[in-house]
Write the structure tokens for this entry.
Amino acid sequence: MIPSNCVNAMAISVVAPRIPIKQLTTTIQLNAHLTALRYANRSVPIRYASGKSKGTSRTKDQPKKKKKGKGRTDFKQYSLKSAEQFSLCDAIRYIKAFEVGRPPTSPKYDLAVKLRTIKNGPTVRNRLRLPHAVNTSMRICVICPPNSAHAQAAKKAGASVVGEDTVFDAVKEGRIEFDRCICHQDSVTKMNKAGLGRILGPRGLMPSTKLGTIVQDVRASVKGLVGASEYRERNGVLRMAVGQLGFTPEELQANIKAFMTEIKKDMDLLSEKVTKEIHEVVLSSTNAPGFSLNGDFRSPESPSSRDLAVI
């Protein structure tokens, strides 16, 4: 007798079997016979218990799969022809409506500058000290001999952490109590031997010549960092906090002008083969949406600067 599961397998359509099915008395013989038929006639598919088949050829009616073309080489930017844009005073007016009831120093004005640029190209990155400082609580660490004149100058300039071995031990223990770190040239060798790169590197705090954080004049570097802000291009967009909610429109305008001027200088320093252009400037805040700026300071419907200065 042939097992019941083998009887179901006989339902496979075969073409002129050479050996009568009745002569196959074991499951092994049946499987071997069906395998031979499949190799002889490729039109017979392999069927599983679920009813699915494997090895079926694509019919002529089925369309061929389209090959994927090359992706975009630049970041996609939408057209601004139909976009609603605002003057600076109008944007401040609407943003303050979203920030009602919040402390004037807690929310920040954020500026996003969208660029027309290629992907995987050189990016813009720099540090800028705005005319009106936004973040005045930055903690700066200076790596230099603790009893030297450089250490005294760094402390007078506003550095919160100064030293060598004490700084190295604190970092290795996980106590990173600073937001920026600079190193004097005389302490570079000692810093490298301490192996701080694997700890400070992922956080973007490791001093390096490329970032301009290995310096000779510690006092000037600390003064430049106090109240300074960093910006870096990510996915074709530059972002930076340009003001506090309590800033007047004129103070915010001065910071925005300084930021845009510095961006244009950074783009001019790039290679001639790479072109970057400013596409759109968007002003937002901590809790408010973004408002695209049209480049004007005020419109005929804008409130006065004195009214906008009142929180």
User: Anything to note?
Assistant: Confidence is low (pLDDT under 50) at residues 5-16. The longest strand covers residues 108-116.
